[in-house]
Amino acid sequence: MSHGRDIGEAIVRPRLSIPGRIGLILLALFGLLPVYWLTATAFMKKEAVFALDRPLFPVDPTLENFIGFFQNDLLLQNLKNSFIVSTGTAVLAVLVGAFMAYSLSKFRYSGRNAIMFMFLIGQLIPGALLLISLYLMLSSVNLLYTYTALIISFTTFTLPLVVFLLKGIIDGLPDDILEAAKVDGLSRVSTMFQIVFPLIVPGLITAAMFAFMRGWSDLLFALTLAGPDNQTLPAGLTQAFIRDGTADWPALMAASLITSLPLCIIFILLQRYFVSGLASGAVKG
Amino acid sequence: MIALPAVLLFLVIAIYPLISSIGTSLYDQSLLRPDRTFVGFDNYTAIFGEFMARLGTTLTFATLATIFPVLLGVALAVLLNARIRGRNILRGTLMLPWLLPGVVVSFLWAWIFNDSYGVLNHLLTMVGLPEVSMLGNPTGAMAAVVIAKTWHSFPWIMVVALSVLQTLPAEQLEAATIDGATRSQRFRYISLPHIVGPVALVATLEFIYNFGNFDTIFVMTGGGPGDSTTTLAVSLYQLAFGSYELGKASAMGVLWLILLAIISSAYLLLNRRLEKR
């Protein structure tokens, strides 16, 4: 087929040539084979993984690695901590962030641009840079090694994304509704709770889930600010991994799958919002 | 007033620590003892050589771990923009690596690269190639963390590039076709310029994030072997929570902060210029 005959949709989305297909297959394999290996190992018996004739797929699949996870009190505690900290982050980030977004979206005041600038720059600060001061600060107010320490830290670093995401949505709310609320004598806070929040529920859920993911995935702060009892899964697993070396790979892969599962579920629920949401927070500001 | 909680949180948790680390950097302070003594710029002179060495490693890692995901992500976006069966399913499943927490990605690649039982060496042996010790030597370790990070972040670049490609006006491509442009010319002169801006922006962000990456390197190599993969983030963590040298670690942080300010200004300039277009 000559190129001259490409029309309409076919020009924007051409067919793939043979080298193109081969390229796509190779790149897709690079992307997907490790995921396969993660899953496959998690279902393998420990003996099989360390045997001389190691199989490349779970010949004799087992759930023992997952069962082991749920019989391990320390890991269960880590899992519980992860849920508490991530949920706390999601709730606090959305509450604080929504007010901020509302203010940036519907009010004009001096310092508004400076605040937006601060939030934009803020998301570029690497966690490691704040670590020492944050540690000393939390220690001096007796918050070190608490859930609160983790939740407020995670919340702060999720705020830029949450604020820019929600600001984009609140920008789209017609001013008339808010004017009407004002005429009816509602205070700003009641307007938020009674008018704005109910109108942007999908946005709030999206923002909450992004915040949840932030708390769920973090390693650095959990490692330093959580202490032994409040450690989340990534920190707990890392310490066990470094302490025990490479003792039990199938168990570690099973634990990794369990750690990843909530994020995958959130992604499936949020697919639609993903690109636009992240783009509004991370790229455009 | 309703903006206050967010601004306060940000000032207290993000901005204040940045400034207060300047103070800490001027003291001989350790986690092991409560008191501290003023030492002026001694910490800076003590760690400057180390800082420069770690900076080199960090730049190597951040550059490589940005270039490869960008190339891979853009290539996949272009290929996935074509008419192929199962396109949406493929695009969805290729997002998986990006969803996994950094720690999981690091465990996974450490397992793949494991000298004795890793699947990489298993496959190499099967096809008659010699085994490699990825995490056991400096070059291999750097390659390993770059590969892991590439795998973790290519989906994000891919999705951005793909969504930009899909906003390309069909008329423009059609007009070019009527004027006799070949497929590769259309790509070179229309599609590529169209995606360059947004991709450059995401690449800059990716570079800044990689510059501060902690998870991948800390988990996979712990900065080793030797100090071949010790980046600034890992070094700062080790100084502060391994050797408890808070003053020296803060001095390293302050030097890093100055650098970051320069890089961020570049990002903001780029952002502004692209928004004007």
Automatic annotation (TrEMBL), chain A:
Main location (coarse class): membrane
InterPro entries: BP-dep_ABC_trans_perm, MetI-like, MetI-like_sf
Location of the protein in the cell: Cell membrane
Signal peptide per UniProt: none
Keyword Transmembrane helix included in the entry's annotation: yes
Keyword Cell wall biogenesis/degradation carried by entry: no
PANTHER family attached to this UniProt entry: INNER MEMBRANE ABC TRANSPORTER PERMEASE PROTEIN YCJP, MALTOSE TRANSPORT SYSTEM PERMEASE-RELATED
Entry protein name: Multiple sugar transport system permease protein
Biological classification of the source: Bacteria, Bacillati, Actinomycetota, Actinomycetes, Micrococcales
UniProtKB/TrEMBL annotation, chain B:
Keywords for this protein: Cell membrane, Membrane, Sugar transport, Transmembrane, Transmembrane helix, Transport
Residues that span the membrane, as ranges: 59-82, 94-113, 141-168, 189-209, 249-270
Database matches in PROSITE patterns: ABC_TM1
Biological process annotations from GO: transmembrane transport
Any Pfam family matching the protein: BPD_transp_1
Superkingdom of this protein's organism: Bacteria
SUPFAM superfamilies: MetI-like (SSF161098)
Domain ABC transmembrane type-1: 55-267
UniProt keyword Transmembrane, yes or no: yes
Recorded topology in the membrane: Multi-pass membrane protein
Record-linked Gene3D superfamilies: MetI-like
InterPro entries: MetI-like, MetI-like_sf
An annotated GO cellular component: plasma membrane
Subcellular location: Cell membrane
Family: Belongs to the binding-protein-dependent transport system permease family.
Identification of the protein by name: Multiple sugar transport system permease protein
High-level lineage: Bacteria, Bacillati, Actinomycetota, Actinomycetes, Micrococcales
